[in-house]
Amino acid sequence: MKETKSSCCGSSSEKNNPEKPESSSSCCSKEKQPVHTTSCCSSSSKATSEPATNSCCEDSPEKRDWLLWGSLTLSIIFYVLALSEPSHDNWYGVIAHSVQELLNTMWWSILLAIAFVGVLSRIPQEFIISILGKGGTVKGLWRATLAGVLLDLCSHGILMVGMELRRKGASLGQVMAFLIASPWNSLSLTIIMVALIGLPWTLLFIALSMVLAITTGWLFDRLEQKGSLPQNSVANDLPEDFQFWREAKSKFASVEWTQALALDIGKRGLNGSRMVIRWLLFGVLLASAIRGFVSLEDFQNYFGPTLLGLGATLIAATIIEVCSEGSTPIAADLMNRANAPGNSFAFLMTGVATDYTEVMVIKDTMKSWKTALYLPLLTVPQVIVVAMILNSV
Fold this sequence. Notes:
393 residues, single chain, 4 strands, two-stranded antiparallel ribbon, mainly alpha
């Protein structure tokens, strides 16, 4: 199956990338899927291919998304129940009002997130990949970290992209920095985090996660250069005259601002946000269930700003296999109900580093248990130190 791709201005890019693989495999399916790249310039959706799925765990069109529709149905039921059930004395009343509170807090950020997803879907994949820079350098790590922050994917969907970057020549440090910075730092989740915990804490969490991505990536690069970890045999050198802002300005100037473009962005935003929304609604239900069955006193005792609470948080983050969108409401509860900002940060970060799906995909892609296990080994100790400092503030 030939690769379908369109450049930012409609020209074919096959000549510029003769070695680009025909397909990329999903971490959730053994079948290969064609790689599609959309144009940011054309206002007609007919001229471009449908956007590639945002998640490696995205359901096929023929298969009903039970997680999405189940979470949406339960959320609606509990929301309506909250309107007719003023009592907080029973578990279902607490869950209903918790769902109502969280949805009332997040609705505007969800709409903005859909808009951001639609805009990002118009940016060519080659342009995003090209900003990574040269591997093994601090500048390359910064570029990979920024790419991870800007890319709008969940912690499972980001794996397919991260592994593809490795195949394209990214250094081990760049891949790890990309993975660590990506999952909950996407533009859509950033907006939701602002709504849940406020702008100051959100910006601090983003800054700290970027620092951890850089330090962990630097350690991986050093281990790769010394031969302690497998090196990448594929080169990924950028042209010397490449200038990111010049290219960005050129692409932006070529955009045709039409009604068709706006409609296409909205359609892509709704389709691309399905993965985010389903896990987000699931996280709302999970966080509300915790509120309904675990009292505030017990929650603060078990997950409070103590060493025991931090340990319980790390264990929970390791066991609970929830996408980053689903972990966001729980992390917000650790901040707001348990008064433990460090635990909230640790839940977000260690969920990335200790996620067994992520570890296994890294192992299978890089053919190295050592590389996969070094991710939690190098990341978790740093997260614990930062979390303890945040809890003591």
